[in-house]
Amino acid sequence: MKRTVTRIQVFLLTSIGIVLLISVLAPYLVPYDAYDTNPDAILQAPSATHWFGTDNFGRDVFSRVLIGSTTSIFASFAIIVIATIIGCMVGMIGGYYGGRVDAILMRITDIFLAFPDLLLAIAVAGVLGGGLVNAMVAIIATTWTQYARLSRSLVQDIKNETFVKAAKISGATNGEILLHHILPNTWGLIIVTAVLHISTVVMGLAGLSFLGLGVRVPDAEWGSMISEGLKVLYQAPWVALSTSLVLVIVMMVFNALGDQVRDYLDPKTNRGERP
């Protein structure tokens, strides 16, 4: 079946491409050193010289937002990839083999699901200590379970299909069946879920940094920058608000892209059965 790409999908893909390109090239695009303090430029309002103004150390906020995008976005991408791999491995193995293997893996998954995501992430980050890597581990611990549940249900539906039985009869091993026959038929929903989770992970990483459990000051990261900006919110609201605005816009774009990817992969949408 032929799928059509709409203008809004092209626009969103272009927007995401621009965001990723800016994140990659951020060190070369910044007008000022993101960590260079200037006592003569403390808390200057937005202007042609400093587009987002300066913070309480005289650092250019726009430069710090650009540098922070590299950490915030690519760390979130890494979290999604790792969580997806772990979750899909657990879910596929449990769903395919069933029985005691499935019961053990799902009970482990249920233990992680028993705690609210943010609470578990804070607890893990608190035990491990601050820092980007530890914050990533904390968020992965709260994210992989969703992919485990999703992939398990998909595999349970697919493993009894005729093409899987034919592969078994032809002598394919369980590993070959999982990798070459079942996995390709589960990617649609998994990709949609992953894209929709990007904004959630960006917010989670920013939240941990905001609480002092993620990226440490003075490293540029959106959550820690918002936390610093709150200290001077009344004197210089642009420090926190400009970073918050960028964070919200990026999250909205990724959420909209996830919706469009879901519609693109949904056969009903492409046949015109849904508005």
UniProtKB/TrEMBL annotation:
Keyword terms of this UniProt record: Cell membrane, Membrane, Transmembrane, Transmembrane helix, Transport
PANTHER family: D,D-DIPEPTIDE TRANSPORT SYSTEM PERMEASE PROTEIN DDPC-RELATED (PTHR43386:SF1), OLIGOPEPTIDE TRANSPORT SYSTEM PERMEASE PROTEIN APPC (PTHR43386)
Record-linked InterPro entries: BP-dependent_transpt_permease, MetI-like, MetI-like_sf
Main location: membrane
Species whose genome carries this gene: Veillonella absiana
Compartments it resides in: Cell membrane
CDD domains, per the entry: TM_PBP2 (cd06261)
Protein name: ABC transporter permease
Regions crossing the membrane: 12-30, 73-97, 118-144, 187-215, 236-257
Family: Belongs to the binding-protein-dependent transport system permease family.
Domain of life according to the entry: Bacteria
Membrane topology: Multi-pass membrane protein
Sequence ranges assigned to domain ABC transmembrane type-1 in this UniProt record: 73-258
